[in-house]
From TrEMBL:
Domain AMP-binding enzyme C-terminal: 414-490
Cited PANTHER family: AMP-BINDING DOMAIN-CONTAINING PROTEIN-RELATED, LONG-CHAIN-FATTY-ACID--COA LIGASE
Organism per entry: Nocardioides hankookensis
Record family assignment: Belongs to the ATP-dependent AMP-binding enzyme family.
Protein name: Class I adenylate-forming enzyme family protein
Lineage: Bacteria, Bacillati, Actinomycetota, Actinomycetes, Propionibacteriales
Coiled coil region boundaries: none
Pfam family, one: AMP-binding_C
Keyword Ligase: yes
Keywords annotated in UniProt: Ligase
Residues covered by the AMP-dependent synthetase/ligase domain: 6-366
Length: 509
C-alpha cells in the first residue's frame, strides 16, 4: 500500500496530495518523505514487522502519515474510532495486542484512561498535546531522515485490523492484507465511468478509521494521484462551504448526509464543482436519490460493501441501467452467488444469503483467521438479497442483527451487555429502527423488577453515555414489564420490530 505513495511522488512530486480544509497540506513528495520518516522512527522505537499499532486520530494529516508509515514499516495498522469510550479502547488495545497507540489532542484523555486500566500498557505517541511522563510526541517519533524501506515481498502480509461486528457476537477485527486492500482499489479503478481520476479533488469527510474512508477514499486517492481534502467532522453548512472553496469534484458520503442537505437552499449552486456523489456503508432509498438528482443535477451512485471485502462489492456504476432499489452489479473480479437455507441456489426470483468471492476478501477474524472464506474462496456475508437477469443486486434483509447508524455498525449484544450492568435492569433487548437522519437508530427494551421506570431509563442512559461511543447509545429506552418470548424462551425481537413499525405509522402512541 505504501508503495503507491512512492510511485505518485516519483511521477508528480509537486502536486498537492492531501490538504486539511483551510489548513495544512502535503505534496506527493512531502507525503513520501513524511511516511518514510514515520516508518524509520517506528523501527527505531522497536516496532517490528507484524507488530500492531493502534491509531486513534481524527481526519488530519497525521492519520494519513501514521497509517502509511506503519504499513511501510511492515507493521499492522489498527485504526479505531477516536470517539470510542475508554472501555472500548481498552478492549481493542488488549484484543489486538497493540504495542503502541498514536493519538491526538481530542482523544488523548480517553486513551490515557483506557491505558491506565491495562497491565503492561502500550507506549503512547501524542499529536499536538502536552505530554505526560512516559509519553512521546509525534514530532519526536519522526526520524530526521527517512531510511529506504525494504520492498514488501509477501502480499499476504497483514496490513490492517479493522473492528467490525462480523456475523455474530461482539465486534471482531477483520484481518486485511496488502493483497486484499490493493485488490479492491484495482477493482474499483476498472469501473467505467471512473469513480475517481487524477484530476479529481475528493472530499475526505468520511472517517478514515472506517474501511469506506480508509480504502475506498484514501486508497483510491493514492491509486489515482487525486487530491484529498480532509474534513475533521461533517457539518451540513461547513461541508458545503468546503466543497465550494476547494472545488471538490467527487463527494463520497454516508446516506444520512442527504437528509441533512434536504432543506438546504441553493443546493444546486453550492454543489457546483461536484461531478459525482458516491454513497455507501448503508442503503439509500430510491426516493432520496431521485429527489436529490432532480434537484441538483448531480448523479448519485451507491454500492454495497463490507469491511471484510475491503470494502466495495457492487456499484450502480457497474449496472447496465439504473434501477430503483438496486445497489448495482459486482465490480470486475468479484463473484456473487445466492444460497438458500439448504445451501442450494434459490428457485426463481427467491432471495438467498449473499456469498462473495474475490481477491479483495479478508483473511478471517483476528487472531486465528476464523470465519474467513472457505476452501473455494466463498464467504457468506450474512445479508439476504436477490439478483436480477442483468446481475444487479437487491438487498432484502440481514441474517445478522446488525444495526447501521450513520454508516457505522452496531451489534446489539454489545449494547445489551453494557445495559445489563445497570442496577434495576433484569433483562434487555436491543433492536434497530428506521431513522430519517441516521438511517437506523438503536432502541433498547428494558425489563425491570420493582424499579421506577423513569429512574431506570435515566440510569441506563447515563451508563451508556460513559461506556459506549455516541452512535451506539440508544436513542430511546422503553422500560417494560415483560419481553415477548417464543415457546422456547427466546426473546422475539421480530415482535419488537413490529411494535416499532406500528409506532412509525402512527398506530401506537
Amino acid at each position: 500500500m505504501a508503495e503507491l505513495v512512492t510511485r505518485a511522488a516519483a511521477e508528480s512530486p509537486d502536486r498537492l496530495a492531501v490538504v486539511e480544509a483551510g489548513g495544512r497540506s502535503l505534496t506527493w513528495a512531502e507525503l513520501e518523505d513524511e511516511v518514510g520518516r514515520v516508518a524509520t522512527g517506528l523501527a527505531a522505537s522497536g516496532v517490528l514487522g507484524g507488530h500492531r499499532v493502534l491509531i486513534a486520530i481524527g481526519n488530519r494529516l497525521e492519520f494519513v502519515t501514521t497509517y502509511l508509515g506503519v504499513l511501510r514499516a511492515q507493521a499492522v495498522a489498527v485504526p479505531v474510532n477516536p470517539l470510542s469510550k475508554a472501555g472500548e479502547l481498552a478492549r481493542m488495545i488488549t484484543d489486538s495486542g497493540s504495542r503502541m497507540v498514536v493519538t491526538d489532542a481530542d482523544t488523548v484523555v480517553t486513551v490515557r484512561e483506557a491505558v491506565a486500566t491495562l497491565d503492561g500498557p502500550p507506549r503512547l505517541v501524542v499529536v499536538g498535546a502536552t505530554l505526560q511522563p512516559g509519553e512521546r510526541s509525534y514530532d519526536h517519533l519522526r526520524a530526521d531522515t527517512a531510511r529506504p524501506a525494504p520492498p514488501l515481498q509477501d502480499p499476504e502480509k497483514l496490513a490492517a485490523l479493522l473492528y467490525t461486528s462480523g456475523t455474530s457476537g461482539l465486534p471482531r477485527a477483520a484481518m486485511l492484507t496488502h493483497r486484499a486492500l490493493l485488490a479492491n482499489i484495482d477493482q474499483v479503478a476498472q469501473v467505467e465511468p471512473p469513480m475517481m481520476h487524477g484530476d479529481d479533488v475528493v472530499l475526505g469527510v468520511l472517517p478514515l478509521f472506517h474501511v469506506y474512508g480508509l480504502n475506498a477514499v484514501l486508497g483510491g486517492v493514492l491509486r489515482h494521484r487525486a487530491k484529498l481534502v480532509l474534513v475533521e467532522r461533517f457539518d451540513p453548512q461547513e461541508t458545503l462551504a468546503i466543497i465550494d472553496d476547494e472545488a471538490c469534484s467527487v463527494v463520497p458520503v454516508a446516506p444520512p448526509v442527504f437528509a441533512y442537505w434536504r432543506g438546504e437552499q441553493d443546493l444546486e449552486e453550492r454543489l457546483g464543482p461536484v461531478r459525482l456523489m458516491l454513497s455507501g456503508s448503508a442503503p439509500l432509498s430510491p426516493e432520496v436519490i431521485q429527489e436529490f438528482t432532480e434537484r441538483t443535477g448531480v448523479p448519485v451512485h451507491q454500492g454495497y460493501g463490507l469491511t471484510e471485502a475491503s470494502p466495495v462489492v457492487t456499484s450502480t456504476l457497474c449496472s447496465q441501467e439504473l434501477q430503483v432499489g438496486s445497489v448495482g452489479a459486482a465490480l470486475p473480479g468479484i463473484d456473487i452467488r445466492l444460497l438458500d437455507d439448504d445451501g442450494k441456489p434459490p428457485e426463481g426470483d427467491d432471495p438467498g444469503e449473499i456469498e462473495i468471492r474475490g481477491a479483495n476478501l479478508f483473511s478471517g477474524y483476528w487472531p486465528d483467521g476464523s470465519g474467513g472464506p472457505d476452501d473455494e474462496g466463498w464467504w457468506a456475508t450474512g445479508d439476504v438479497g436477490f439478483l436480477d437477469d442483468t446481475g444487479d443486486l437487491f438487498l432484502v434483509d440481514r441474517l445478522k442483527e446488525l444495526v447501521i447508524v450513520s454508516g457505522f455498525n452496531v451489534y446489539p449484544v454489545e449494547v445489551e451487555d453494557v445495559i445489563e450492568e445497570v442496577p434495576g435492569v433484569a433483562e434487555v433487548a436491543v433492536i434497530g429502527v428506521a431513522d430519517e437522519q441516521t438511517g437506523e437508530a438503536v432502541v433498547a427494551y428494558v425489563r425491570t423488577v420493582d424499579g421506577d421506570p423513569d429512574a431506570v431509563a435515566a440510569a441506563v442512559r447515563e451508563h451508556c453515555a460513559t461506556r459506549l461511543a455516541r452512535f451506539k447509545q440508544p436513542s430511546r429506552i422503553e422500560v417494560v414489564d415483560a419481553l415477548p418470548r417464543t415457546v422456547t424462551g427466546k426473546v422475539q425481537k421480530g415482535r419488537l420490530r413490529g411494535i416499532e413499525r406500528r409506532r412509525s405509522l402512527g398506530l401506537l402512541e
